[in-house]
Amino acid sequence: MQDAPGVVWFRRDLRLADNPAWDAATAAHRSVVACFVWEPALLDAASAHRRNQLFAHLRALDSTLRSLGGALVVRNGPAAAAIPALVESCGASAVYLNTDASPFSRARDIAVHAATEVPMHRFWGTVAHEPGAVLTQRGTLSQVFTPFFRGWQTTPRTPWPDGGNGRPVELSTDDIPKPSEPPRQAGGEKAAWERARRWLEDVDRYADDRDRPDLHGTSHLSADLKFGTISPRTLIDVVGESSTGRTAFVRQVAWRDWWAHMLAERPDLAPSPVRPEYSAMTWIDDRQGFDAWCRGQTGYPIVDAGMRQLVAEGWIHGRVRMLCASFLVKDLLIDWRKGEQFFRHHLIDADLAQNAGNWQWVAGTGPDAAPYFRIFNPTTQSMKFDPHGDYIRLWVPELASLAAPVIHDPWKGGGPAHGVKYPAPIVDHAAARLHTLAAYKTARSSLPAQGAS
């Protein structure tokens, strides 16, 4: 083992267990400096909900390191200045990190590498399979998820390092802010695994309950995967595939990997449609409609419930995310990128690859996307997936007194049911559907669609 310390640069891997960068450093060095760098651009882009969750996770990581005799060393960015300065001040002989597919992360790592004189050891500790590991027989990334998933299931994992006896050290550090309000979830990897333990009690019902926002039918582990307080590899191993529900859940972890691989191949996933024909889409600059959508005042209860929950909590159920996104794009014909940016700002679990990829899926502009003619009816979707209206009552209190099925369409018949104060629908779904179909048809005729592989 080396006497010179190694620096472990934590980013989206706020855990010690099953962390390849941490394990490699503790195996190679007697002492390890654990650090985190504040990046102003990332903090400024995050909602208060996401910042508070980050602070909670960092404080928990610091507590764990202190129990081992060290501490989390926090520095102000940019990292291209902070990491080389830390390496020089502590006499480190190497830097260890878990990399990420986002353009910001890749550019940052290149800049740090250029400014740092010691070796940088990089790992993929944020995904089950790193980009480039799951390819078609032609050696390309599948543009269709199902064959990607089949390959993902059978691809051997790249080995991760075994940890060693290296110990964290304590250095002078900037303070980690306290959350301004209680975070949505308890911070740290111990709390993440307690959430996973509780999820194991329900996961067998996942295939049946996953689309019901009125039930506890999903894992609520998306933010833990985003911040890296839980390892996707270990989570998959613990869940397994011994039931339909467990297989369906593992498939969602693979879906997460697929978008990370897609972003690594397509750095422009957020600003540019994957299918080039949709670059010709004529979107509507409906500022009033966008504002009503953001505030949860569209007149469609399931959409309004989701948008209000997003702003209030920084989280929405997956089915409701899809319905909110579909309404913005397919009912209001507003550019999906505006919605993607709004979600990315507010969501605690905001992940560029997942957020941009899923918005492109809903908009029909991405690989293996929902067909452009799939336009979800928010009222019938609400009746199907929130059948008793319990989710709507929780987030649209002005409708709480209404019984199903009236709560799903309080304006049916021409006026608000029982005189409730609730906005009229800002668009007629049936008419909007026809308008949207025409707009997509026009865009598709501008350029031949690209075949999927």
**Estimated helix fraction:** 40-55%
Shape: globular
CATH class of the largest domain equals: Mainly Alpha
CATH architecture annotation name of the largest domain: Orthogonal Bundle
Largest sheet: 6 strands, parallel
According to DSSP, the number of beta strands is 6
Gyration radius from CA atoms, angstroms: 23 Å
| Range of strand content | 5-15%
DSSP helical segment count? 19
Listing every helix as H and every strand as E from the N terminus to the C terminus, the arrangement reads: EHEHHEHEHEHEHHHHHHHHHHHHH
Arithmetic mean of pLDDT: 95
Distance between the termini: 47 Å
Looking at CATH, the homologous superfamily of the largest domain is DNA Cyclobutane Dipyrimidine Photolyase, subunit A, domain 3
Textual characterization of the structure:
The chain is of the alpha/beta class. The protein folds into three domains: 6-126, 3-Layer(aba) Sandwich (Rossmann fold); 189-265, Serine Threonine Protein Phosphatase 5, Tetratricopeptide repeat (Alpha Horseshoe); 276-444, DNA Cyclobutane Dipyrimidine Photolyase, subunit A, domain 3 (Orthogonal Bundle). 47% of the residues lie in helices and 6% in strands. The chain has 19 helices and six strands. α4 runs parallel beside α5 and α14 packs across α16 (352-363). The longest helix has 22 residues, at 244-265. The chain is globular, with a radius of gyration of 23 Å. The protein starts with 5 loop residues before the first strand and ends in a 9-residue tail after the last helix. Mean pLDDT is 95; it is low at 449-453.
